[in-house]
Design brief:
- By secondary structure, this protein is α+β, with helices and mostly antiparallel strands.
- The protein folds into two domains: 1-98, no CATH class; 118-221, no CATH class.
- The protein contains seven helices and six strands, in the order H-H-H-H-E-E-H-H-E-E-E-E-H.
- It has helices at residues 6-10, 30-39, 56-70, 74-83, 119-130, 136-142, 203-220, and strands at 92-93, 115-116, 161-165, 168-177, 180-187, 192-199.
- The strands form two sheets. Strands 3-4-5-6 form a four-stranded antiparallel sheet, sandwiched between helices. The protein has a two-stranded antiparallel ribbon with strand order 1-2.
- The longest helix is centred in the C-terminal third of the chain and has 18 residues, at 203-220.
- The model has no long low-confidence stretch (mean pLDDT 93).
Length: 221
């Protein structure tokens, strides 16, 4: 594990075992993820940088890195640095639901999830990225795809997938957990942002809906 770098975690090329997978029992906290890694005789299944394999464990570790660098919990830090400046008043980064819900509860981890938000707040965030309301240099870095250690390029940047479309770059991310579904799509060259949130439905349908809406808006311009 000593050879794993932050970029490996960011681009899902760490080679670590995904100890957050539902088949391994839902992790109760970030500390639970650390304990699972420590209990494994071989926490790494492959050499870092060799191949890309989506792995939420890496993003839990990244959240802990951020908390330790700033010496603050990542939830309040996200509120101070992102949510409050962008007036995202109904958005929280929290391991537990900030409001009562009868729907299935997600894992108690942060980094791979834990974002509680609304479509309006999410669109505000995406539009802020399109309009350079956040540091453009940071946004550029976040949206730059990674690579394998042999130089093979990836289409995955920092938590988002970057692909080509007739309207320019398509920057997207999708997520799901026990019926909670989400898809965001940006076409920054066209100033287009789409967010789709759903409870229930099919993951593929929600993903296609987000992409199709963005492409349709681009065609209408």
């Amino acid at each position: 594990m000593a050879d794993i770098r932050l970029r490996h975690l960011l681009h899902h090329t760490s080679g670590l075992a995904d100890v957050t997978a539902p088949s391994r029992r839902v992790p109760a906290s970030n500390a639970d993820v650390f304990e699972r890694l420590q209990r494994r005789r071989q926490p790494a299944l492959d050499s870092p940088g060799r191949r890309c394999c989506y792995n939420n464990t890496g993003y839990v570790l990244l959240a802990e890195v951020v908390s330790r660098v700033f010496q603050r919990p990542i939830g309040p830090l996200a509120w101070e640095r992102i949510f409050r400046p962008l007036a995202m008043t109904r958005t929280w980064l929290s391991a537990v639901a900030p409001i009562p819900t009868t729907e299935p509860s997600p894992p108690g981890t942060l980094g791979d999830g834990g974002l509680w938000t609304t479509v309006a707040d999410l669109i505000g965030y995406l539009n802020a990225l399109n309009c350079d309301l956040l540091d453009p240099a940071v946004v550029h870095r976040v949206e730059t795809p990674g690579w394998l250690d042999d130089g093979t390029p990836l289409d995955y940047a920092w938590g988002v997938r970057v692909t080509a479309s007739p309207a320019g770059r398509r920057i997207s991310h999708g997520g799901s957990w026990a019926g909670w579904l989400a898809k965001t799509v940006r076409l920054p060259e066209r100033q287009i942002a789409v967010a789709v949130l759903s409870i229930g439905g099919q993951e593929s349908a929600i993903s296609e809906l987000g992409t199709d809406l963005a492409d349709h808006l681009a065609q209408c311009q």
